[in-house]
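Target protein
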Amino acid sequence: MMTMILTRNIKEYCATKKAHLKETIERDFPEGIRKPTLAVFQIGDVEASTRYIRNKKKDCEEVGINFEWYYYPEEITTEELVQEIKDMTPYVDGLIVQMPLPDHIDETAIKLAIDPTKDVDGFHEQNVGALCVGSKGYVSCTPLGVIQLLKRSGIEIAGKRCVVLGRSNIVGKPMSMLLLRENGTVTVCHSRTE
């Protein structure tokens, strides 16, 4: 029963959010004005990534955001990918490098190559630091979505004992920081937790 309520709440929230965003974009970017542009870089052929990017593309098209999808072969080097990111940055409003990356690519170098003001995934160290100290910045979307889902479902976080399973930089750590921001008491469990 709870799953049905949460699913309905998130679908309603997403529909409302998309409708509001579409209205805002139509109002603020009338005909002849360049609409916001999101660029997504995909490296290699990972089906889960392709499916995820396809969904991002669909969402962008629904609300009126320009979507640019760049595919690079798995053999691309860290240096080549950094240069591609730097070359694209002036022409887009948001930029995502789809994770995971092939093992030979330096993930930290890629995250740092993204302009923090265009890092909509919130992976740049500047955005991660902002999250840790409670400043403004981009936040990893899955944890932020979980917080919104809890709030929209009327679930109070303040004062609750919250357990986060996993300590990844993409979900676990940002999730724990967001729960702390909401005054939850957070325990993080991971592969070394007894």
